[in-house]
Amino acid sequence: MKFSFHTCSLERLHFEEAIIKLAEVGYAACGPIIGPGCHLDPFTITDSQKSSCRRLAEELKIDLCILNPWRIGDFVIGVPSGKTERFYTKALDLAADLGVPAVKFLSGSLASKKKTDLPMAMKVFGSFLLSSEIGMDDNAGWQNMIKVLSGANRR
User: Which residues does the chain have with pLDDT short of 70?
Assistant: First the structure.
């Protein structure tokens, strides 16, 4: 068994700094945050950066166990346009290139919550649009998630 760390709380650091700190305190695995402005961006990361990430993780003996989409926004809204499927397709490609066995995949749906029920920080800084905000229930969020997964896996 290995302890793993989701790197969102180390967002202020560069990826390299974050996993070095985690290795120094004894973590054996981490789940880097991915998305625009995150530790790893599936749309902008270069092949040499991927190689550097793999090499550093190997040197530190820290597994990259899951990729965690972070602040990607608009999951539900992006389904009809294909934006959500494109992101997750790139995320799955990045996982394959890095040898990471999983990508976290959530629908973003919290049908029991209304926009007015959310804390002010989420209203101002929130990174996703709730399916309930556009008249969708939780079931619709899961159906969208399955649709996107089906498309992202057809490659």
Answer: 73-77, 106-145, 148-149, 151-155
Nearest partner of 75 among 63, 60, 85, 62, judged by Cα:
85
24-46 core/surface letters (b: 16 or more CB in 10 A; e: else): eeebbbbbbbbbeebbbebeebe
Burial of residue 153 (number of CB atoms within 10 Å: 0-12, 13-18, 19+): exposed
Helix segments in the chain, DSSP class H: 15-24, 47-60, 78-81, 83-98, 120-125, 138-153
pLDDT in tens, 61-106: 999 999 998 877 666 667 778 888 888 889 999 999 999 998 887 6
| Residue with token string 């530790």 | 39
Q: Is 106 left (phi over 0), alpha (psi -120 to 50) or beta?
A: beta
3-class DSSP state of 153: helix
Residue with the two structure tokens 């089906």: 150
Question: What is the identity of the amino acid at 15?
Answer: F
